[in-house]
Amino acid sequence: MEGQCRVCGQTHANVEPHLYDYAQEVDEDLMCQICLQPFVSPVDLLCGHTFCQPCLLKHLQVQKLCPIDRQPTDLKHSSPSSLVLKKLIDKLLVKCPPGVDCGQTVQRGDLEDHLKFRCPVLKSPLRASTSPPSVASLSLSQNLPPKIGITRLPVLEGEVSHIEIPRLSPTLGITVVGGSDTALRCIVVQEVFPDGLVAQDGRLKPGDQLVEINGVDMSSASHHQACQALRKLKSQVLRLGVYR
């Protein structure tokens, strides 16, 4: 299903990468060799090649080979790219999307906040579609029981941010990779699914490192322990320590 994306402001299917109108020439080293566009949610294969996660997923549904060196591979053999690469692509300059076009140029990583809060053309935040909002798409704070006090703070780069997400349903809508028992040695958000609580909250992104889950330090947690901490949460609020 296609709709206006709240991250990039353009219309594309949920399973496709975000679309951007770049205001600068982009180095080839920052380009996905499947879509020939700058990386979106980049992941690395064991062979060392990097692709947009949505592009790679679509490619692997046809053939489980690296698109470049043709070595056998699978999505489970991929891992989120480094924070250095993520910061480089987030600093690329993009224009306000067609249909809005306020004439301003911002860094790609700031476009979502620009569309929500700073774009002079928009008087209200962009929504994922133009259809009437369902209960799930309404502001999370509007659905909270009065007794839950939620602190809504942004996730900042280069430091640990603490965020709270209300558990309005059991479906978080994320996958994580890594752990103390893997080569990553940390817990990293791999994918955020459009219909889950995390996507509705809008702050957690692929590539973010989870350093704490409801007060429990994840620095020495195995992959299984981190997944259990997310699955077995019984409180009404999910509290995360996030490093971006």
What does this structure look like?
With 244 residues, this protein is an alpha+beta fold. It folds into two domains: 102 residues, 2-Layer Sandwich (Herpes Virus-1); 84 residues, Pdz3 Domain (Roll), CATH 2.30.42. Helix content is 17%, strand content 22%. The protein has six helices and 14 strands. Strands 9, 10, 11, 12, 13 and 14 form a six-stranded antiparallel β-sheet that branches. The chain has a three-stranded antiparallel β-sheet with strand order 3-7-8, with no helix packed on it. The two termini are 30 Å apart. Keywords: Metal-binding, Zinc, Zinc-finger. GO terms for molecular function: zinc ion binding. This is RING-type domain-containing protein. It holds the Pfam family PDZ.
Number of domains: 2
Identify the CATH homologous superfamily of the largest domain: Zinc/RING finger domain, C3HC4 (zinc finger)
Distance between the ends:
30 Å
Count of runs of 4 or more consecutive helical residues: 6
In terms of structural class, how would the helical and strand content be classed?
alpha+beta
The best one-word shape is: globular
- Report the radius of gyration as a whole number of Å: 18 Å
